[in-house]
Amino acid sequence: MKCVKIILGIFKWIFIVLISLVLLIFIVRFIGQQINKLTPSGGINEEMYIDINGTKQWISIYGRDKSNPVMLYVHGGPGIATSGFDYPVLRKLADDYTVVNWDQRGAGKSQMKYPFDGYVTPELLREDIYEVTKYVLDKTGKEKLTVLGSSWGTLYGGDFALSHPELVECYIGTSQVVDYQDIYIRLKESALEWSKDDAEFHKLVESYDPLVFSQEEIDKSTAIRKKYCQNDNILKDGDLNILAAMFFNPYYSLKDLYGYIKVFASGKMPSAYEKFIYDASQEKPRIGGIQDFSLKARTEYPMPVYIRTGNKDYQSNPDQPKEYFDMITAPDKEFEYVDGGHFLPFIDSEGLAVFVHKVRERSAS
User: What are the TM regions of this chain, as residue ranges (predicted)?
Assistant: First the structure.
């Protein structure tokens, strides 16, 4: 009996300790969130859902000086918002810009609270970014803004800048993409060289058709990337502690975080974008509406252009952005290679902040 009491006492204290640790974790998270919710003196720190083209979409606005120019961050994917962890990066740009983060249709907090059950089209996406921009400019009292695109967001943001120079004063691309179809063509060309001493895998590469997006061909491109292009580690590359950023995220509840992590862990393309990327209506599925955003033949920019991309970016292609940059005509332009893969140009937050500061200085001179 005495032994039982001792064991029960031990379990009681273990339970108390565990409950105390859980409470401590929640308290630490609460304090961190409240600190991140503070509004800088003379600045702005807001989040909201705005009416955009028949839906409600989430944005946040953060800046340390309301007189600074405005920057619209256009995330990648398509359909993969980074709002779960990107605020430490974007806030490092807030000395130079008032930064607007936007979860696009069918993505992130926009999708979690106001689900979009249809399929996106190029026309729909173009209307969305136009309306978001107009809302932001009206709210901040500015006439133009700077577009900061990342990955797919460089196609989306670049297309918008070229289509609406009356609203865009500067374009910045990180992890620049130029032509989605061309990525796969170049992947095969590179893989033929990489696999020349591996006869069996070389046969698989030779059989790969980069113009077809059937499951069989997608599996081949995935195999190629898995074998030769795994140089990205979003948790270790750069200086952004993604887990800490998610834990102290001022915009996300625990329920939001659960939904966000669930989407990332699934590895699946958001359903709203399935037909946008692959057109399965044909016998041999081809690339979808995303190809409509190709920048390949669009090289005359009325505004300054600045590109920061990875020299080992085989999620996209390391050569494609530089070749495109060399063809661009713009009032001012600069190109910077980062020693790393696809995600590094953005999650190297200190390097990005330095790059953006230089952009701000050049645009102000």
Answer: 6-28
Structure tokens at 307: 């590109």
Give 16's Cβ-side CA count (13 Å radius). 6
Q: From residue 197, how far is each of 200, 219, 305 by CA, in Å? A: 9, 22, 40
Distance CA(315)–CA(233), nearest Å, equals 12
CB atoms within 10 A of CB 146: 27
Say whether both 128 and 13 belong to one domain. Answer: no
Verify that 261 and 352 share a domain, yes or no.
yes
> Mean pLDDT over residues 254-268, rounded?
87
> What 3-state DSSP class applies to 146?
strand
Residue 268, pLDDT score: 76
DSSP letter at 55? E
The 3-class SS string of 303-344 reads: CCEEEEEECCCCCCCCHHHHHHHHHCECCCEEEEEECCCCCH
Q: What is the model's pTM?
A: 0.93
10 and 114 co-located in one domain: no
Alpha helices in the chain (DSSP H): 2-36, 87-91, 108-113, 122-140, 152-163, 180-194, 199-207, 215-228, 242-247, 254-266, 274-277, 319-327, 344-347, 349-364
Q: Give the pLDDT of residue 255.
A: 94
For residue 258 the two structure tokens come to 């659960």
Please tell me whether residues 15 and 105 are part of one structural domain.
Answer: no
In angstroms, the CA 71 to CA 144 distance is 9
Q: Is residue 209 part of a domain?
A: no
Which range marks the domain in which residue 11 is found? Answer: 1-36
Check if the beta carbon of residue 128 is closer than 8 Å to that of residue 79: no
